[in-house]
Amino acid sequence: MVFLVNLYTFLIGTSRAVYTALFNLYLKSQHLENAVIGRATFYYSWGLAIGGFIFASLSDRIGRKKAILLTIPIYVAFGLARLYNPSHVFFLYLFSFFFGFFDTSVILPTISVIESSDEKKRLRNSNINFAIVLLTGVIGYFGAGFLARTFGLGKSLVLSMILALVAISPVFAFPDVKVYRKTRRKEKLTTIQKAMLSYYMISGALVSLAAGVFINFGNVIFYDLFAFSTTLITVVLAVSQLSTAFTSLFSHKLTSKYGYKLTLFLVYLGVTVLIFTMPLFMLNSFAFSLAYVLRYILINISTPMYMVFCLSYLPKSSLATYSGLNFFLNNVMRAMSAQFFARLSKGGETDYNKLFIVSGLFYLINTLATLLAFYLMYRLSNKENKKDEVSINIVDGKENVEKNGTAQLSRRGRRKSFVFIHEKRKINKRASIHFHTPPTRDRFNGVNWKKK
Question: Closest by alpha carbon to 425, among 405, 399, 449?
């Protein structure tokens, strides 16, 4: 199952990377302004958010296989429709929304890998799948530059959509995995699970809002700031993907040595500092490119850590529903980020200094939220442990009394259940005083009266 998912991820990821790298540049070649490009991305992100939530929940009922086979052909159709005469902005926005709505190429493979892996191999398999996603980005970005020079932007985008249609061929071999029905009882989350679910949603939304500028407009940023060619832009993006893919293969060793919490906090802190210094790196194209690559590595190696850490606390039967809700919020934030980019580009030029400062503020809030969430988890886990100890002590006391009576208790029972024994002895004394003389000379209430 994991191999088939990874094969599908490789094919659909390559298609997606080529399309993402070239589409904004295609709109630029059609003499469309950044404000129009930003709004097209805004509607695409809204479609991605709504569709991701709906189809993730639907896949809990009909299965991942049927959900992918249903959505990807329609996704391809709207991807091609976007290319037809984009100067008609109404249709560009409409097709962009539905293109995002049926785009399940990211969320469903991620869920499939997590739920089909056992706990020990979950992070490793997620890292491998994530590394494949990044590797397809490298191949896609390098391939995008080659295809654009050979066939032009429009034809290259058409070829990427054909590859997306071919990508569903491994999906036909997917096994029919277990589908969770609605007839089950409504699950009640523990306090720790509720806290983790809240952090999962809030942190994902903040990171998406901060990173949306780089995700959606990385190619435009290099084009505007340094007038990079299409080939050079795709090279920088490909190096970012390749470096992250290599790093992500070993990131699980960081979590095994330092733990999820410390690793996530340090990564988020490093990204925050880096974003605030971006205006300084804008003075030199090479320095800015290095800073962009480093930011890309740090924030992307944190993604599988964050997802596996959070989802491991949540019920497996609702994994896709929670992931779909998170996917919805993330893409709503990316839509807000695209709208913010469009507003900063109204005059024909974009104020990138202001853009980086605002993005850094959201990263800072996420870092503080991460620290607060981990502290809250620590306090809640301590409370849960104390409750468990009390319940275990009471159970141990009862077992000792039932087995040996109040006259004979093990040393472990006396040590662990002193309060319970004390109360039990009081009850026995009252019983002996009330009856005065037992009805039998042998035993009453588990006490040997002959010895007394």
Answer: 405
Among 10-14, 104-108, 120-124, 438-442, the least confident range = 438-442
Which band of pLDDT confidence, cut at 50, 70 and 90, is reported for residue 76? very high
> How many of the other CB atoms lie within 10 Å of CB of 403?
11
Looking at the 3D structure of the chain, how many domains does it have?
Answer: 2
Buried b / exposed e over 186-215, threshold 16 CB at 10 Å, is eeeeeeeeebbbebbbbbbbbbbbbbbbbb
Domain shared by 347 and 442, yes or no? no
Tokens of residue 404, six digits: 């040996």
Are the C-beta atoms of 60 and 179 separated by less than 8 Å? yes
- What are the structure tokens assigned to 188, written together? 């009640």
Query: Which DSSP string corresponds to 47-93?
Result: HHHHHHHHHHHHHHHH-HHHHHHHHHHHHHHHHHHTTS-TTSHHHHH
With respect to residue 396, please indicate whether it lies within any of the assigned structural domains.
no
Quote the pLDDT of residue 440: 47
Cβ atoms of 95 and 127 within 8 Å: the answer is no
Task: Assess whether 443 and 329 both reside in one domain.
Answer: no
User: How far is it, in rounded angstroms, from Cα 304 to Cα 293?
Assistant: 18
- 434 and 345 assigned to the same domain: no
Please list the residues that pair with 443 across neighbouring strands. Answer: 448
Determine the pLDDT at residue 347.
64
User: What's the N-to-C CA distance of the chain in angstroms?
Assistant: 71
- CB-side neighbour CA atoms (13 Å) of 360: 15
- Distance of alpha carbon 52 from alpha carbon 50, whole angstroms: 6
Q: Beta strand pairing status for 447-448 and 443-444?
A: antiparallel
C-beta separation of 159 from 21 below 8 A = no
What does the pLDDT average to over 27-41?
85
The H-or-E segment that residue 448 falls in is strand 447-448
114 versus 248: the higher-pLDDT residue is 248
Cα 270 to Cα 289: distance, rounded to the nearest angstrom: 17
Are 285 and 432 part of one and the same domain?
Answer: no
Domain with 81 in it: what CATH number?
1.20.1250.20
Residue 99 has pLDDT above 70, yes or no: yes
Its pTM stands at 0.62
